[in-house]
Amino acid sequence: MVEGVVGPADQQTGAPGSGSRRSRASTSRYGFGALGLDLVDSRVEESVLGLLESVEDELRASVASADPFVTEAARHLVEAGGKRFRPMLVALGAQFGDPTGAQVVPAAVVMELTHLATLYHDDVMDEAAVRRGAPSANSRWTNSVAILVGDYLFARAADIAADLGPEAVRLQARTFARLVHGQIAETVGPRAGDDPVDHYLSVIAEKTGSLIATSARFGGMFGGASAEHVEALAGYGETIGVAFQLSDDLLDIASESVQSGKTPGTDLREGVPTLPVLYALASDDADASSVRLREILSAGKVTDDDLHAEALCLLRESPALKRARETVRSYAEEARQRLAPLPDNSPRRALESLCDFIADRTS
């Protein structure tokens, strides 16, 4: 596609004259600044925002059921909001073809429904009480209801994917399989002889990178991009997905604020072995700070307030955090390199802006 040539925003939202008004309202809603996304070109911005608004409408319609309770429970997380990162990547991927294609919005809905379904299941496994600032489905209703609603959303995603063709069904199923493999690997933990860091990076690629990769792939596919460009988008999506998750790990330790969306040190308090912690535990540094840090972390959950504060302080000054930052930057740079086959246009520069953001946000 020629740079900047996008369909009218009004055509994408389906409401005459509504494109500009809805786009202005949506810019803050989708938090592009919080994601570090610079859409560069106003016409690309209008196109992406128009697509995302259409996705919102379709999400609500797609989870409706003849049973009012099912509709309420299924819309629970839809209405809780979120950045819609996966639909956004579908919309950006479509810019390398025709973003007004009839199947672009349904493809984005498939990706977001699949993501939302995993959140219902994750909250049950994590015994979470809150999701996106609202009571989680399992705390509002029961674990059984949350699991079944997650299953319902997976089914709805598969139903919509069927209208996109056999290849879409196959890709969505394979992505779902990777998600499940990643969750199983995380639950079981590294086996004897496995390197904990390699295991952790593999889990993130399966649980997070896989769906983001398919989102970018779907954008290219259903926008009609070339096969070479579709593969470049998929490779970018997986790598940027891993980079984002790893950068969140670092923010949980390094941020003095709630920049990561949760209280700093939450993972440490809950015993979640994120990358900086794994690097610290694997270190053989003999200085007093490193030895003391390993001693605290080896206990798993750090719930004592004094020990928690000490561990956070030691981690922030540790070689492990520096090494983790270097790992994040390497993934961000790899994601940028994956974009090399794509034309040097505004959509590509928008995708590159995410790489810059990730490399800088944890410095």
TrEMBL record:
Region of interest (Disordered), residue spans: 1-26
Keywords attached to this entry: Magnesium, Metal-binding, Transferase
CC cofactor: Mg(2+)
This protein's record includes keyword Magnesium: yes
Compositional bias of kind Low complexity: 13-26
Pfam families: polyprenyl_synt
Family: Belongs to the FPP/GGPP synthase family.
UniProt-listed PANTHER family: ALL TRANS-POLYPRENYL-DIPHOSPHATE SYNTHASE PDSS1, GERANYLGERANYL PYROPHOSPHATE SYNTHASE
Name of the protein in question: Polyprenyl synthetase family protein
Native source organism of the sequence: Micromonospora echinofusca
Lineage: Bacteria, Bacillati, Actinomycetota, Actinomycetes, Micromonosporales
